[in-house]
């Protein structure tokens, strides 16, 4: 019994508490509170200030890269004379293209810096793929829970609609026929009219249960004076294809629909996941081709990758700004989600319970209890008519059996309504959605933020080191001169000829001692 009464709960994680505790400043640099109010301009200002930190970091990166470019373009131009003298002094003791001494050490340093930056970028890409997968898993759990809750609410709406339709059918059909037959017998007529009155009371009570209809079917009427006149039957479908209602005028539909929220989140998540995959592939391609360009000493390839590295640098800092604002806003929501959900869905009943779906469902169970009492009274009247009236009015048997059949179907629907309106099922869906969003989703966004930061640092280092790397590569004219010098060297050619034809030299020495 203890395990059956256990209710799942949600507790904010450590990362949620840490991010929620960050200070908030508006555009006028004044401290603001950290209550999650996404529609408030003051709250949006705090997120803009946090996002602007990545813009400041981008400016610093551009200044660093610009300073290195000025260093390579201007400072090295004055060192060409000294560099040529050093190359002439070291030319006799060097091989290959003559890179040795100070210049060789500089080239090696620049190359290793570029390789280290590319390695750091590859590590960041691995973190990004993991974070993207974690965020996708969290959103999948959130949307699955919302669709399950929407399926439950749609089933509730279907049962209510079928029950009201059946009772209306019994009032307009068999009960009316029985009243006409019992016109001459006042006791039987009073019992029949009591059944009609109780049926109308049940219809009114079910019409006031607005949880399912206000959460799923927004096309139902709000006029309570006409009992069930505007009720449209709704067939529940599996959570994967649950029906939704698209709002037309605001961010959230009024009233709120879990199915609409799930489908909207799924569409946005697909675009987000695909965007990050493309960004990660772009970074990976740039890193691999930079390594290939360094290995092949292909200057044109490195120049092309430098252009793409500039693009990746801007995208990395830009994504970091969006992720920072999203992480902080999500931490504000996850620190106290009940308050925002209650205000958004208008489910507040004036209490401070920590379980959201417990708030309206107490009233729904009370209404169901009153409806079941009314149905029990209808059963009593029908049993009395069955025992006493059929012997005097045999023509009323068919109508009486129809009313009893409708009543039995209605009681079956009531048992299902009580099970579906159980707080544990909807509360479990609510807690699961919070865990998916605030645990896996939050962790994935933090990993993506780390990826953006590391990749931005890596591309900054790459853009600083690549100009020095491709300047150290020999040009085509230098390679051509080196090949010509080797072919025109008489000592090298004579030594090669002696190594190629040793038997001919031996024969000549023996012939002319």
TrEMBL record:
It comes from the Eukaryota. GO terms for molecular function: intracellularly calcium-gated chloride channel activity; volume-sensitive chloride channel activity. It is found in: Cell membrane. GO terms for cellular component: chloride channel complex; plasma membrane; smooth endoplasmic reticulum membrane. It is a multi-pass membrane protein. The chain crosses the membrane at residues 47-70, 107-130, 273-294, 301-320, 445-466. Residues 81-102 are annotated as: Disordered. Residues 84-93 have a biased composition (Acidic residues). InterPro entries: Tweety (IPR006990). Keywords: Cell membrane, Chloride, Chloride channel, Disulfide bond, Glycoprotein, Ion channel, Ion transport, Membrane, Transmembrane, Transmembrane helix, Transport. It catalyses: chloride(in) = chloride(out); L-glutamate(out) = L-glutamate(in). Belongs to the tweety family. Probable chloride channel. Homotetramer; disulfide-linked. Homodimer. This is Protein tweety homolog. It comes from Xyrichtys novacula (Pearly razorfish). The lineage of its organism: Eukaryota, Metazoa, Chordata, Craniata, Vertebrata.
């Amino acid at each position: 019994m203890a395990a059956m009464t256990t209710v799942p709960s949600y507790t904010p994680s450590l990362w949620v508490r840490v991010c929620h505790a960050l200070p908030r400043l508006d555009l006028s640099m004044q401290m603001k509170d950290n209550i999650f109010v996404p529609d408030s301009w003051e709250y949006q200002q705090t997120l803009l200030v946090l996002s602007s930190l990545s813009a400041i970091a981008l400016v610093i990166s551009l200044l660093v890269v610009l300073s290195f470019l000025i260093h390579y373009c201007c400072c090295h131009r004055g060192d060409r004379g000294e560099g040529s003298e050093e190359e002439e002094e070291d030319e006799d003791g060097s091989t290959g293209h003559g890179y040795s001494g100070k210049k060789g050490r500089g080239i090696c340093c620049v190359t290793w810096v570029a390789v280290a930056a590319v390695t750091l970028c590859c590590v960041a890409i691995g973190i990004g793929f993991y974070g993207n997968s974690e965020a996708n898993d969290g959103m999948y759990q959130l949307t699955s829970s919302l669709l399950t809750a929407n399926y439950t609410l749609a089933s509730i709406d279907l049962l209510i609609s079928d029950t009201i339709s059946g009772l209306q059918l019994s009032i307009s059909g068999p009960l009316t026929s029985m009243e006409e037959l019992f016109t001459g017998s006042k006791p039987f007529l009073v019992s029949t009219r009591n059944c009609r009155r109780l049926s109308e009371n049940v219809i009114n009570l079910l019409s006031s249960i607005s949880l399912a209809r206000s959460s799923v079917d927004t096309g139902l009427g709000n006029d309570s004076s006409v009992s069930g006149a505007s009720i449209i039957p709704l067939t529940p479908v599996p959570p994967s294809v649950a029906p939704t209602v698209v709002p037309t005028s605001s961010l959230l539909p009024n009233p709120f629909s879990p199915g609409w929220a799930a489908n909207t989140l799924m569409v946005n998540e697909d675009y987000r996941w695909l965007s990050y995959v493309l960004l990660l592939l772009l970074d990976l391609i740039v890193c691999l081709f930079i390594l290939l360009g360094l290995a092949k000493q292909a200057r044109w390839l490195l120049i092309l990758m430098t252009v793409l590295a500039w693009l990746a640098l801007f995208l990395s800092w830009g994504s970091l700004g969006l992720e920072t604002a999203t992480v902080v806003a999500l931490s504000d929501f996850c620190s106290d989600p009940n308050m925002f959900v209650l205000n958004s869905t208008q489910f507040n009943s004036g209490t401070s319970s920590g379980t959201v779906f417990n708030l309206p469902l107490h009233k729904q169970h009370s209404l169901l209890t009153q409806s079941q009492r009314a149905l029990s009274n209808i059963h009593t009247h029908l049993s009395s008519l069955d025992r006493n009236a059929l012997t005097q009015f045999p023509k009323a048997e068919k109508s009486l059996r129809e009313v009893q059949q409708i009543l039995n179907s209605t009681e079956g629907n009531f048992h299902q309504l009580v099970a579906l309106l159980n707080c544990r099922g909807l509360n479990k869906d609510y807690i699961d959605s919070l865990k998916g969003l605030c645990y896996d989703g939050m962790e994935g966004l933090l990993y993506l933020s780390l990826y953006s930061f590391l990749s931005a640092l890596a591309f900054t280092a790459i853009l600083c080191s690549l100009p020095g790397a491709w300047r150290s590569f020999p040009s085509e004219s230098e390679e051509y001169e080196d090949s010509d010098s080797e072919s025109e060297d008489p000592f090298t050619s004579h030594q090669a000829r002696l190594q190629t034809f040793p038997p001919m030299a031996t024969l000549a020495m023996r012939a002319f001692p």
